[in-house]
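Entry 14. Two folds queued back to back today. First construct below, sequence then structure tokens.
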Amino acid sequence: MTMALALPDLAAMDALGQRIAEKLAPGDVIALTGSLGTGKTTLARAIIAALGHVDEVPSPTYTIIETYDDLRIPLVHADFYRLDDPGETDELGLDDYREGAVLLAEWPDHAGGFAHEPGCLAIALEKVGDGREAVVTPGTSWQSRWP
């Protein structure tokens, strides 16, 4: 049940973030893919803000993992771009961070991918003109929550 959504501007990206945030449950994974500059971090920030975070949301490009325990649902924002091997997630303690939390994963393929997990909402972002398009593929546990 893959669906393509037009995101012509920042307001549309924020609205998608809000829509996703309203349906999140502990254990979910939002897997964000797309080339550099397609809006992965922008969408991640929109989701985190929609969950109640009011401060700046730094990109985890260098820290790899940022945690947000004070939201409606605890959330782990990870950017796996700099990983050379999926096994490095063990060294980072990713499973410990994920306990009872949502994982918001940029560059999920660098961590071995998460599409096999039932709670994965895979979102591939692409540039389309001046805007973006999101191709959304819900995992089995998202079937009743999406769209």
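Second construct, same run, same settings:
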Amino acid sequence: MELVYFLPPILGAFIGYITNVIAVELLFHPKKPVSIFGFKIQGLVPARSREIVERMMDSLSEILTQDDFEFMIDRAIVRAYIESDLAKRIDEIFDKYPLSFIRDIAERSGLVARMSLAISDSIAGVLKDAVAKNIAKNIDLREFVIKKAQEVSDEEIEKIFKKFAKKELRFIELSGAVLGFVIGCMQSLVIYPYLT
């Protein structure tokens, strides 16, 4: 007779967990619209994936600025230079001839050599900045991401979403079990006077 009081919490936990697992799956499935009793059903993410991407782009465009792109491009140019043959050749020259030797040559050749080095460094810096600004100005992140989103399949979107929100989705499933258990306990308290 006392087992009757444990039945509502156990059933409530089971039903709450199962319904939340189904609700989480309904976020992604069915991928294509299915007609059931005249109602069209489709997973929320596949049905609204383009709208989700659009909203994400609106949010990103508010956060990312042209200065951010200039920074990224500037760093990319510097990395490309470091990895280039020119950088390797300059390193070879410094390995072959000690820095003091190059400095001696610069001092012997006088002011003209130092000025030419300073001018070439400033020209390289200005060119690098101009290139970075010009490229950054012409980048359309929204267009790129929307194009990429159109190439991504619903399965890949599901994997990305589940990877990103794995803990939160698991929490939703388990919270169904907890809420079902609590409601079951309240039901047991309500029926207790009638069974005793």
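Quick look at the second one. The first strand starts at residue 34 and ends at 36. The chain has two domains: 3-48+153-195, 61-142.
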